[in-house]
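Note to self: user wants both folds in one dump. Writing first protein now.
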Amino acid sequence: MTRFIFITGGVVSSLGKGMASAALGALLQARGFKVRLRKLDPYLNVDPGTMSPYQHGEVYVTDDGAETDLDLGHYERFTGVPTRKSDNITTGRIYSNVIAKERRGDYLGATVQVIPHITDAIKEFIAADLTDEDFCLCEVGGTVGDIESLPFLEAIRQFGNDVGPERALFCHVTLVPYIPAAGELKTKPTQHSVKELLSVGIQPQILLCRADREIPENERRKIALFCNIQKERVIAALDVDTIYRVPISYHEQGFDTEVLRYFGMSTDGKPDLSRWEEIVRRVRNPEGEVTIAVVGKYTSLLDAYKSLGEALTHGGIANNVKVRLDWLDAEIFETDGAVLRLEGVHGILVPGGFGERGTEGKIKAAEFARTHNIPYFGICFGMQMAVIEASRHMAGLDHAGSSEFGNPDPAVVGLMTEWIRGNQLEKRSVDGDLGGTMRLGAYACHLTPGTKVHEIYGSDVIEERHRHRYEVNINYRERLEKVGLTFSGLSPDGVLPEIVELPDHPWFIGVQFHPELKSKPFEPHPLFTSFIRAAIEQSRLV
């Protein structure tokens, strides 16, 4: 019997609903339960795939090819449970599905309305594709009081009634701000937020109160009294020095214990948090430090590279070092002499991206890493830029470029129009829709024995997640390999280049996929572990 926990938020956005969901999932796992985490997003986009990273942060990609909210990355990193298409839904997708049914006549002429048709579709999503999970945690995006959240709140209210209180629990994340002029924490924002939630028929059973300091007992009693809940279920969500301490902090505050008590389940014994304690110990007590320059185009909003930043941290955890990230806008390297800002860094990473802006700066970063023997990691777009750089400056193809930005001659990077997924041929057209039309999800890659990536992975075949439309042109493989750029990973049919490397370089690897999406603090991705190890070696030379 699956129990459902709904996590909502109030007062302001970015209070940490996703982190609370992920941490609770980890705590329940540590007690031996099987969990599943889901995200309900109120925006009208069908998915975040075509949204600017400045609007929504990174797009997280699942194995089965869904473009999803970045919170699903938190879920995977904290629980290790692979997320799926059925774990993220938006208002846009709900409405698309309902309207498609109406067009087919599935509603038999009924007037299609928010209640019951939209809310029923949301409830179907909440309960779908579950098997033997003990708990399903559903995070509702947005803030209580937002007009676009109302159908989701109504749906979870109905769902709670449908399954009964013995199978549904409502948690609400609020803010308890400290007002310096008054010299005290203020509970009124929390009271108003709960009142807003009550106005749509939901009584929260647990409150997670974000605060930058301990919440005194009398303030907890006040919150409990005004919000009609037990004092023990007013949980302080305190700031911590590393996000990987969040599960430990929530356990210390009694979050998982109160969840089990609500459901009438045994609270005997303690969760095994040893792996989180070890991760926190390594983060707090590094044996050294390396500096990695991340040369990208969305560096003013770090949520655009959320998984990447965490994967680099995981590489540091694996090597017992602190990874200091120097986020650099690629455009600055398009001015004379600016590339010298990369002197002294211990590694250079060029991440994924779309569009022409900053491309020449990324190419110069790749060239600087190659010619100065600095470890270089090119991910997706970063691999393509490394191939263009090698084509221009090693293979003599002075005008090499990507067809994403016009009609270069030669186009060493071009638009994919068809590729193999399993036993199926997938096709795309140049003038097709942008949404959901990329090469998305997990694909197999065959590694060449004797190469660096083969040594790093210790395997002949790997599977990694993709999100791109353009691909390195296999027709230039022979010419590039003659000048030293090895194509060390290919698609099973040998048509799509997946990995390139420079064998005579300390560490120079470009990958077409996104390895950061599969990295976890307790299971760092081997490429990031190896890259940071190379950066440590570089730090000894600087």
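First done. Writing the second protein, which came from a different request thread.
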Amino acid sequence: MAEAVKTIKAADAALKVIEDWGVDHIFGYPGGSFDDVMNALYDRKDTMKFVQVRHEEAGALAAAAESKLTGKLAVTMGSAGPGAVHLLNGLYDAKHDHTPVLALVAQVPQARMNIDFFQAIDEGPIFDDVAVFNRTATTAEGLPRLIDTAIRQAYKYNGVSVVIIPKNLGWTEIKDNFISTAKNHLAPLYPQPDSVAIDKAVELIKAAKKPIVYFGVGAKKAGAELKAVSEKFKLPLVSTVIAKGIVEDTYPAYMGSTGRPAGKSGTELGFNTDLILWVGNDSPFSIFLFNPRAKVIQIDTDNEKLGKRHNIDLPILADAKTALAALVAKGDELEPTPFYRAALANHKDERAWQASFENDKSEPLRPEPVFAAINKYADDDAVFGIDVGNVNINVMRLLDLKTTQKWTTSGQYATMGYGLPAAVGAKVAFPDRQVFSLSGDGGFAMMSQELLTAAKYNLKTINIVFSNETLGFIEAEQRDDTHQPLSGVDLPDNDWAKVAEGMNVKGYTIRTFDDIDKVFKAAVAADGPVLIDVKLTHEMPMTTQHMFIDPAWQDADKIKEFVTKYQAEDLKPFSAYLKDAEAGKL
């Protein structure tokens, strides 16, 4: 007589599939429509942890951040109706930064669907735009296979998969005989670079007078190869914002990023280059940041991206690491050009100029002394969750990332409120590593309730709020771009340390230069989450969007105004460095 197959509730079977794929926690918030899944989480509490955030948006943001940091699937959940809608913002972040996330979404029981029942909405259409895979379960027996399919799709397309689960299905007993496909999951194989294209690329680089590398997160595993290409062919390295950290910030040929959040040297190179080795990036702003007449060699694994952001002269369909290694293996080492020598000197002087403010005792504080402390006290494997706004500008210029550290921000979607949920996701993913969140007071206020999550689970995170009482990034756009009266950007002063204390998180306030070191010493020694409220100057970080510094072609009055505003007396335009290099002075 055949042995009877054991049964299991469908919701428990769904969690078993998720566990098979290596996930051991879910971010979310309970609701009556998800009682079936909450019961399954209780049943499987030894193998699946439920991380109870304060808001579903924070759960989705935490999952997106975790996935970006680990490269693996992360999972979030929301109840029917309002809980489902709350997920959307975090899921859009995952969509725009191309990272695999699974969202479990509750629905009212099937018998109550489509009849104007309590909290019932037509959930499928609201996820159509954000998801690469969006399905509603129709049978309890099919739920485990649906979850398995959703995970495969999230990995295949590096995006969001949504599975909507009517409440009655999760409670239904089904046969416990489904075997997931997790063991069959393999990393994708990319085409080898065409040898003829590699030869052509080397010839283009050799013929160029002002070549650079512009790389994105598609080069995240190719840091060593980027440096090797730079050193062999004497190419300055410029990255997209979210590719910061692939090459350490202290590497002499790494110029940082380009554009508004970036530093001076990377921005200047973009407009002076005559050839770009464009590696694994899809930055939407790149059309504004480079000489439109520059020749382009583009390396990418996705042929849809070839030529998407800039006219290109040579496409190479291959993985960044493999293609760059193939370039290094070809041709002879080149001598440093005047352009290369000028780029390195410009960047070295820019970093020295920034460092000159690290002991500045102005009140409210400049950002440089605070970031000097972060660089000092951050562990070599620290993880950073970075919010959106002026904090991105300061992070790009002042946070010296090591390749052993990790960081995440809301890149292409750029949603405020990202920093604190990202730190929650980071600490859950990396419980033994030091985790920071860095936020402006505007972004922090949006998700500040997640301090309660950090306190509930005693997540030892160091949460820094830069309080300058303005939406600084928007203020700069209104003032510098549209030249309009400031409107709606002012923020009330707030005692964030007191707020933190009310949420059972240790709070500190930094007002003076002398406060900085003692507060950071206490924060890194704490045995639980802490918040540091830094009272920061209202003055904007240096702008590279409207940089007036070159007397050869810019208005003298505007240069004087710019230099005075940003204390930029020690900065020279790139053209001056290039002139010195061409004269043999560098």
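Dump finished. Worth passing along: The first strand starts at residue 7 and ends at 9.
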